[in-house]
Design goal:
The structure holds two protein chains of two kinds. Chain A is mainly β. In chain A, about 0% of the residues lie in helices and about 55% in strands. In chain B, the strands form two sheets. In chain B, strands 2, 4, 5, 9, 10 and 11 form a six-stranded mixed beta sheet that branches. Chain B is globular and about 40 Å long.
Chain lengths: ~120, ~110
C-alpha cells in the first residue's frame, strides 16, 4: 500500500520528445512536490503545490509543466527533452506547506529519466 | 544545494560502533533540520528532525545535534547496525527544504 507512488520507474527517450511522469499520494496530504536529483546527487526542489495551487516554482525551464488535477495527484510534463534533463525525479508530499518538524516529506521511489 | 554541505561522501563503520554523520550550512535563517535515509532504488525516508530552538533530539539509536553558532548539524547512530547502511541526506529550510548531497554509510558486520 504505497504512500507516494510515481510512474514510470524508468523512462528512456530521445531528445526532442515530450514525456510525462505521474505521481499520486494516498496520505491525505495537502502539499506535493517535485524534486530533481542531479548528477552530483543533490536533491533540488522544482515545484510545490498546495491543494492544487502552485506555491513554489524554482528556476526551472518552461519546458517543465506540473499539473495537479486534485490534491492527491501531481504530474510532471516535460516538453522538448534535452540531454541535460537526464536525472532522477522524485515526487513527494507533506502534511502542510513549509518546513516543519512534524511535517516531513514523504517521497516516491523516483523516476530515472534518460535522454539519449 | 551549496547552502547545505555534507563534506564526507562516504563513511565506513564497524557494527556496534557509533556512526557520526555531519552537515554544514550557511543560512542562519533555517528553522527546521531533518535527516533522511535512502536505500538504492527507493526514495528518501524521514529519519529524525530538530527545530532551531533545540540543540538535541533523540529517537532510539538516532540522535540529532544542532550547533547554531557553528551552523553544524550532526546525526549520531549508536550502536550502528548493518541495516543502517544507506545514503543519509541532511535537509533544512523554512518554506522549502534544501538538501545536502548525501553521505553513504556502510556498516560492516
Amino acid at each position: 500500500d504505497t504512500a507516494v507512488s510515481q510512474t514510470p520507474k524508468y523512462l528512456v527517450t530521445q531528445m526532442g520528445n515530450d514525456k510525462s511522469i505521474k505521481c499520486e499520494q494516498n496520505l491525505g496530504h495537502d502539499t506535493m512536490y517535485w524534486y530533481k536529483q542531479d548528477s552530483k546527487k543533490f536533491l533540488k526542489i522544482m515545484f510545490s503545490y498546495n491543494n492544487k495551487e502552485l506555491i513554489i516554482n524554482e528556476t526551472v525551464p518552461n519546458r517543465f509543466s506540473p499539473k495537479s488535477p486534485d490534491k492527491a495527484h501531481l504530474n510532471l510534463h516535460i516538453n522538448s527533452l534535452e540531454l541535460g534533463d537526464s536525472a532522477v525525479y522524485f515526487c513527494a508530499s507533506s502534511r502542510m506547506t513549509g518546513a516543519a518538524e512534524n511535517s516531513p516529506l514523504h517521497f516516491g521511489n523516483g523516476t530515472r529519466l534518460t535522454v539519449t | 544545494d551549496q547552502q547545505v554541505k555534507q563534506n564526507s561522501p562516504s563513511l565506513s563503520v564497524q557494527e556496534g560502533r557509533i556512526s557520526i554523520l555531519n552537515c554544514d550550512y550557511t543560512n542562519s535563517m533555517f528553522d527546521y533540520f531533518l535527516w533522511y535515509k535512502k536505500y538504492p532504488a527507493e526514495g528518501p525516508t524521514f529519519l529524525i528532525s530538530i527545530s532551531s530552538i533545540k540543540d538535541k533530539n533523540e529517537d532510539g539509536r538516532f540522535t540529532v545535534f544542532l550547533n547554531k553558532s557553528a551552523k553544524h548539524l550532526s546525526l549520531h547512530i549508536v550502536p550502528s547496525q548493518p541495516g543502517d547502511s544507506a545514503v543519509y541526506f541532511c535537509a533544512m529550510g523554512n518554506n522549502d527544504m534544501r538538501f545536502g548531497a548525501g553521505t553513504r554509510l556502510t556498516v560492516k558486520p
